[in-house]
Amino acid sequence: MRTVFDPLRRKEVALTPEEEVRQWCIKVLSTELGVPMHMMMSEAGFRLGDKQLRADILVYDRQARPLAVVECKRPEVALGREVLDQAVRYNMVLNVRYMIITNGRQTFACRRTDEDGQVRYVFIDKVPSYNEMICQQQ
Q1: Closest CA to 25 of 81, 69, 67, 61
Q2: Which of 105, 48, 42, 106 is nearest to 69 (CA)?
């Protein structure tokens, strides 16, 4: 079995197709978008009712509050409504400003808006940098 070192979990993990996408995404978030490694967590566990769930990657703000959730899929998985719905369900608990879904070939990002007591998700053109996410949060 092939493995890869996950810098966020600080251990070797099985190199599945989804894990390859997760590791690629961690690298992009840290090197291209300026997310500090210590402000990310992979396979972050949380509960939704009686279900134990795991977010592929969580990005935290400078006060260690969840800021963005990233859902990674294998490259052959289409990024359709089901994947977006999964991220929205996660966000019912996490309450983050940004949701990112990727299969390594395509990446979509949404920003949560709260208008007139209504929560909406607006697709944005690109995944914002860490500093842009922090500034938009305030």
Answers
A1: 69
A2: 42
- Listed as ranges, residues in the chain with pLDDT below 70 are 137-138
Q: What angle do CA 17, 20, 26 make, to 5 degrees?
A: 145
DSSP secondary structure string, 70-122?
EEE--TTS---HHHHHHHHHHHHHH--SEEEEE-SS-EEEEEEEEETTEEEEE
pLDDT tens digits, 17-41: 999 999 999 999 999 999 999 999 9
pTM of the model: 0.92
- What is the DSSP code (8-state) at residue 65? -
Q: Closest Cα partner for 99 from 78, 119, 76, 118? A: 119
